[in-house]
Amino acid sequence: MGARHNGASGSTGPHILTFLFTDIEGSTRLLERLGAGYQEVLAAHHRILNEAIQGHGGSVQRTEGDSFFATFTSPAQALTAAIEAQRQLASHPWPSDVELRVRMGLHTGEAVVISDELVGLDIHRAARIMGVAWGGQVLVSSVTKDLLSGVDEDISLRDLGRHRLKDLAEAERIFQATAPGLASDFPALRSLDATPNNLPVQVTSFVGRQREIAEAVDLLARTRALTLTGPGGTGKTRLSLQVAAEAAEAYPDGVFFVPLAGVSDPVLVMSAVAGVLGLTPAGDRTPLDMVIDHLQSRRALLVLDNFEQVADAAIDISKLLSAARDVTVLVTSRVALRLSGEQEYPVPPLPLPLRSTDTAAVAASDAAALFVARAAAVQPSFRITADNAAAVAEIIRRLDGLPLAIELAAARIRLLPPHAIAARLGDALDLLSAGARDLPDRQRTLRGAIAWSYDLLRDPARRLFARCSAFRGGVGFEQLSEVCEPGLDADLFETLSELVEHSLVRRLEGSGETRFAMLETIREYAAEQLAASGERDDIRRRHAAAFLALAEQASPLLTEAEAPQWLDRLGRDHDNLRAALHRAAEDGDTATALRLVACLWRFWQIRGHLHEGRREADRVLALSDALEHPAELAAAHEAAGGMMYWQGDLDASRRCYSRALELYREQADESAVARGLYNLAFAHSIGGGPEAMGFFEQALDTYERLGDELGVARVHWGLMSNAWTSRDYETMREHGNRCIPVFRAAGGTFDLAWALHMQGTAEFALGDYDAARALFVEALEMFTQLGDASAYHLVLADFAFLAEATGDPERALRLLGAVARLSDETGAGLLEPQLDRYPRRTPAEGLYDAERVEALKAEGYAMTRDDAIAYALQA
Length: 875
What we know:
Blueprint: E1 2-4, E2 11-24, H1 27-34, H2 38-55, E3 59-64, E4 67-72, H3 75-91, E5 102-114, E6 117-119, H4 121-131, E7 138-141, H5 142-147, E8 156-163, E9 172-178, H6 210-220, E10 225-229, H7 236-247, E11 255-259, H8 269-276, H9 287-295, E12 300-305, H10 314-323, E13 327-333, E14 343-346, H11 359-364, H12 366-378, H13 389-398, H14 403-410, H15 418-432, H16 441-455, H17 459-467, E15 475-476, H18 477-484, H19 492-501, E16 506-508, E17 515-517, H20 520-533, H21 536-554, H22 563-572, H23 574-586, H24 590-606, H25 610-621, H26 630-647, H27 650-666, H28 670-685, H29 691-706, H30 709-725, H31 729-746, H32 749-765, H33 769-786, H34 789-805, H35 809-826, H36 850-861, H37 865-874
Parallel strand pairs: 5-7, 10-13, 10-14, 11-12, 12-13
Antiparallel strand pairs: 1-6, 2-4, 2-5, 3-4, 5-6, 7-9, 8-9, 15-17, 16-17
Helix pairs in contact: 2-3, 6-7, 8-9, 12-14, 13-15, 14-16, 15-16, 17-19, 17-20, 18-21, 21-23, 21-24, 23-24, 24-25, 24-26, 25-26, 26-27, 27-28, 28-29, 28-30, 29-30, 30-31, 30-32, 31-32, 32-33, 32-34, 33-34, 34-35, 34-37, 35-36, 35-37
């Protein structure tokens, strides 16, 4: 952002200034109402602002319509001017039908003057702060607040906390100025935090693209499917994020970013959307069904990034838009989706400077501003000068204004001045033009920019760059080391640092783990280098082995106290695990593919990927040589049976469990046989089948013979469930008393939580409500720790029937409404077949008329999961 700078010319170093931005709230409506009379109001507004700014040492840099941009050398004078202006505006005798309310924002930072142009990202930040204010409100950044001194005693600053502005950078701590004569009570700030969203924090600032942002936001208001198209490197992703941030206020139910670069199967797109929305598909409901149910009554925006490789999923997007009438999608893709009603917006390269010899003209261009911003990240003193302007313009021209290519070139400022970069880049691109004729010119240009950065690497860094293409969705250092370090012949950390410095690999912070990732366009180029290196097959094998090791390490812990962090860990590497599974199957490594299915099924179940998991299991189980690996095949059948069980497909589950048991018996693996019998018993028990007891008894005999105390306890837990089916509550209590102490001693959170739930239902049925409540509370706390979505609706139903039995029918109905929502969101369907087993003496539904019952349930249905849990625990 720039402005004409009063009293300066030429190119100067940075100035530290305090920036004041103001504008009139609702000016368009005021103009429409007042007509010609608006000019008189606007003139008075301008006079008041000018007098306040100039009277306190400020300089008006620009006025545009009803907005002001001013600068001050003193933060205290800037704040005093803003407060004086607000007081004068409030006391001015406006026409009786006019309420003029002006919002103001203050921020202190650096700006550079280039040929009378004041340029700097902090100017942009100040405008963003003003943008979240309400009319009559003066907002101050934490930087300005910390620099204030000598302010009148009647002026104070109220801490409004940290807020994300629409530039998507880290949250800004914002303060509200309060003083006599100023309004003090305002609604919550209009920041991004006001709208539910998962828009990622950006480590670099967004530069330029104001015209494109405005056009895209306008189009988004007039269509429900807007696709930003263009070749790799045009900045589609970053533009989509900025457009989503600008438009967020129009989507009160949320703005959700869904990255699809790591998804290659169109069937998985809706699973990715469901995951971002926090949904857990289960039962016979597909991810598309879950997403539609969740969004059909909401006004929300989905940002679907990198859609080109899953273009066949466009039909699911069409179904979603047809069913959820207030949902809009913003898509980035190299090709349009070809949907009815779709609006395509080709994202152009950044505009080039008109005159490359004019320093001001170069500096004022968006492309040069991007180059300067990224170059300054590695060389803070870098500026556009008369000496380098022509070279910077040449770099931009050679790179056709492609943002990614410009960023790659700017990273070379660490080693080379602009004229050297321009010379070397020109040679590289001239050489490139002889090949890859089937690619668009701009894509060939980007390829050349990446190739040029690649050519500047040392040999070990080139090998590491190619090997890193094996990873999808990023990778932690441990797996990166396992896959890439053997045979590198160099220090891995130093070589990786070289790739990060060259902007070919990005370092990602968060979740307690440093991860490394490539932009998809760069990863594609790296994959070509890997294929040409002759190492592709070895790297694929090492990648599969590394992530199989991770899955096998995590698998036994997914039902233990450590489960949340391991589930999150697998979630971060889900794209890598998918890639490992697919590559193992493609490369004939059937044993690895079967082992991955066996290890991942519980993750798929708990984190809502049952449809995907079952499809992967079906695919792997059908491999022609699967029978050559009986041990792995048995475990994969067991995993498939588990997923089918949670989906409620009991017949299929029994078939898979039976096949697993058959294979375990052939291998004479008694421990596995006991587990197979136990699984098969559960698959029969849930439907009340008479075969269940026989399988439980066989499993119990086997575990007792093996001396497996935990296995014995699990059978007693299964017998509790079986007794619940037959309403034998005393027997439930007896089995609970035998298994719960063992689970407590073993620390098995998953087993213990489910046993506590079942024991609570027994105590409830036997009339000991205090004991039941204590057990339900403990179980719910454990399920919350695990994040076990399939358990919530059952335990909240426990609390509902307990409230009903203890004289609080309104609470019971609200909780049943919350249970209905959880069932809809997760697809869990285990409550319905068990409802008649709760001894409900006076059902709450019979105490009120139908309208009141529905109203109370609707109140519960409106609760979030966390709200429902808190409400259940209140009584």
